[in-house]
Amino acid sequence: MDIKRILGMSMMSVCILTACDLDEETFTFVSGDDVAAAGSYDQLVAGAYLTLLFPFEWGNYANIANFDCDYQTGPTWAFGEIGAGNFYGSGSNDNFYQYYFQSIHRANYHYYLVSKISNAPEKQKNNALGELRFLKAWSYFQLVQHFGAVPYFETSISEGETPEKPRTSVKEIYGHIISDLQEAEGLLMPRTDSEYQKGHVCRGTAKALLAKVYATIGSASMPTGRITVKGGPGSTTNPDGTTSRLMPVPLTHEKDLVAGYEDFDSQEYYKLARDKAWEVIQDNEFQLASSQEELWSNAYKNGPEFQFCLQTINGVGTLYSNFVPVDFLGYANPAYNGEWSSGYYVQRDHWLQTFDDWDDDRITWGVMHRIPYWYNEDTGRMSWYFYPERDSVYVRKGENGYDPSDVVASGAHMYGSKLMKFSAVSVYPLDGNRADFNWPYMRYAETLLIYAEADNEVNNGPSERALQVVDLLNTRNNSTLVSERNKKTPYTQETFRSYILEERAKEFAAEGIRRTDLIRWGIYLQVMNAIGNTDENGVIKRREEKHLLLPLPLNEVNSNPYIETNNPGW
């Protein structure tokens, strides 16, 4: 969406929905009816999407999205309560719940206001209505995945909807999500339309989310199945008290049926996922970037691989930019002659070791391999870490950009993968301040993998078409074609299922997808607990059944008379 229009919405009246207070709060002199009377459908759409920026103002969205999974690590202090599994009473947890309900409220209310507009072109008005339905569906999809059954609001409080409502079942919530997305699909312009505005969601976005929703239901409702994940402990203590890193090992887990999904037919929804994902592929609204470097370049922002992104702007207040690049990549600190600062959240070495292609673009360009860590003012020389340790063969020879004086990285946030995807900002190198990083909610690469996943489950093994679809992603990433792997060792349903889950971990590292993947496949507890009590950096990974759902905010339970208990275990 156009960020200037988002900024303009800060001058308007909006209605705030919180976890504990659903009353309207007008903070300027312009009302929603005034905006509707002026025919400003575009501003109403932008104002609804504005709520997506709120959780990023201080970084707490990324905490919920990334910390609670097997492949993320860093210093224990940086992971705090979320990293340790202490979600109850966490501001990040509560804000995640609150802000998505704000998005739902605005999507409902602004849909009502746009519907009243009579002086707007029908095509643009319908597109606006489609965007608002998409936002509502997206918000409920996030809530139901993380919190399970939640209250459902058909309309907004401003239209007379009661503020307190009981929880609606997981199945019913999904019914509403699917209905809203089907409506959005019929209203939205395709990306290929001459009047489509870059940065907005489009018809293909609604279809892609539908495919993801169907696949989520398909995997979660599968009663039994096996899936292999490379994991286990990250280190071991030797008899002499020293510590040695351990390689990940393939561990096969029996999946659980996810609570709340018992009444769905897994095969039915996987068929829907396969067909809808194929429809997105055939429509040609999206395409893969040519390389990881192009994909994550500033020039490619809102490019045709991105189906849905958080929109930001550089240098305008605290709300419209974020600390994601500082937290997840870091920066060369000019105050210390370019020594690396921040970047405390990295992918564990176990993640990098899942790659058997050393030339894969996601770890050649995609991972930072030399880190400036100490500047000697007497000699004027910078000392550099190198990562990973297996690159020592290149370091000794001074090849691949290394210098023989480089030393292997050490420390909780240094020996791990710093992802170059977070460098997609207007000014680079970063300077430690907020940056205009567009958070990637949905990418076309995921649609390709969803098609392959669904096809595998429907056909009891991958079809030739599924292999060809994944080959497209392999080609972009300069990794071994899955079709070639299949010729060497033919895939079974189980081995291809495991391959796709691993590809998702590689492709969408730190994009907020890993935790929900483990949850929907019913292997979250198995994978997390296989690590042990803590990972190699002391971050607590041990989890209990209560961690399968996040806790409702305390204020929601205390103020809503229809909710007497929290999620199980909280």
The strand order across the widest sheet is 12-13-14
Helix and strand composition category: mainly alpha
What is the first-to-last residue Cα distance?
38 Å
Helix content: 40-55%
Unreliable runs, pLDDT <50, ≥5 residues?
1-29
Quote the average pLDDT.
93
Structural shape: globular
Tag the structure with descriptive keywords.
disordered N terminus, two-stranded antiparallel sheet, 3-stranded mixed beta sheet, 42% helix, mainly alpha, 570 residues, 10% strand
Write a brief structural summary.
The protein is mainly alpha-helical and 570 residues long. It contains 22 helices and 15 strands.
Overview of this protein structure:
By secondary structure, this protein is mainly alpha-helical. The protein is built from 22 helices and 15 strands. Strand 12 and strand 13 form a beta hairpin. The radius of gyration is 24 Å and the shape is globular.
Topology record:
Layout: H1 3-9, H2 32-37, H3 41-49, H4 60-66, E1 72-73, H5 76-83, H6 91-116, H7 122-147, E2 150-151, E3 167-168, H8 170-187, H9 203-220, E4 226-231, E5 235-237, E6 243-245, E7 249-254, H10 266-283, H11 292-295, E8 306-309, H12 324-328, E9 331-333, E10 339-341, E11 346-347, H13 349-352, H14 361-364, E12 370-376, E13 381-386, H15 392-397, E14 407-408, E15 440-443, H16 444-459, H17 464-477, H18 482-488, H19 493-507, H20 514-520, H21 524-530, H22 554-559
Parallel strand pairs: 13-14
Antiparallel strand pairs: 1-11, 2-3, 4-7, 5-6, 8-15, 9-10, 12-13
